[in-house]
Request: fold
Amino acid sequence: MQSLFTPNAHPRRATFAALVAGQLLFLLAIWLFYPLQIFPRLGEVLHALGSLITSQGLLQELWASLTTAWQALGIATGLALCISYLTALPFFRPLAFAASKLRYLTLTGLTFFMALMLSSGHQVKLTVLVFGATVYLVTGMTQVILNTTQEELDHARTLGLGEWGSFWEVMVRGKLPDMLEVVRQNFAIIWTLITLVETLYQSEGGIGLLLYKQNRYLHLDGVLAIQLVILALGMAQDYAFEGLRKLLFPYAGLNDVARTL
Reply:
């Protein structure tokens, strides 16, 4: 127990898991026995969740949002990787710099121009999500590339790889675990934006439209039920990314440890 109150301590996994479980049970007990007046009760939320699944198509809408989100993530990741790897060439660094600064633009004004240029609501929705994710992915991925040390490049050159060979081995293959971590951290941007975009373009449905309808008619229990589903699925995808990184790059953690020594 003392390790839980010691700065920079590393408690045992079992101890930390018990701590998390205890805090969750405490919050659940407060919600169950001492609910706020404006906050739906646990039983009401569970009942609303059952109704959403059986009669309002929650699972179908959730699947529609998931497929759109993963499609946007795939396109955004490909674009961001291309832009970020090009920063190894000084000629293209202003492009990556400009792309990263576009994250300060608001999507409210951009959606109007996208709607004028594109022919369908799905294309507009997908373009908004791709743009919103790409500018953040480029920021993180470019930083990964620029953090490449001279020692790493010199080591590759001593092996006779040359400049392009060093680029491939050090920056492309060597940085893939870090790139996947950037994707994991920024997928939440798409998962957050999709509810907003589905509210603006309602032709294909989605979890965002279902949430909008519950909010419009003040069904607070339904709103909270959907929010909890969104949170749970987002956390599940986050852990899936982490598991995929450990599966594909089992030795990547050793590099992180080496950097701290």
Summary: The two ends are 27 Å apart (CA to CA). The chain is about 80% helix and 0% strand. Residues 76 and 130 are 5 Å apart (CA to CA).
